[in-house]
Amino acid sequence: ISTVLTAAGQNLQWFKGTVSGTGLSAITPQTDTSGNFIYYVKGSDINGCVAIENYNVTIHPVPVLSGSDLE
User: Fold this and answer.
1) Buried b or exposed e, range 8-29, using 16+ CB within 10 angstroms
2) Which residues fall within 8 angstroms of residue 36, CB to CB, at 6 or more apart?
3) Average pLDDT, stretch 4-16?
4) What is the pLDDT of residues 23-40, one digit of tens each?
5) Cβ atoms of 49 and 19 closer than 8 Å
6) Alpha carbon distance 41, 61 (integer Å)
7) Summary count for the chain: helices (H), strands (E)
8) Bridge-partner residues for 35, per DSSP?
């Protein structure tokens, strides 16, 4: 289960992996591949001040159940 990443601020842009190009207005981490992923959010205010923050997201593999686990 995955949810949209959120942040507070103005002019927010989301990126996965690197901050380059045009970001997305919202991003939901994909859960089909396990691993550690870095997402970035970039925001700017009316004075042109820019801030970038990162979110480390860990996706765990889906557990595999066997017949003996169900007893």
Assistant:
1) eeeebbbbbeeeeeebeeebee
2) 56, 57, 58, 59
3) 92
4) 999 999 988 899 999 999
5) no
6) 25
7) 0, 3
8) 59
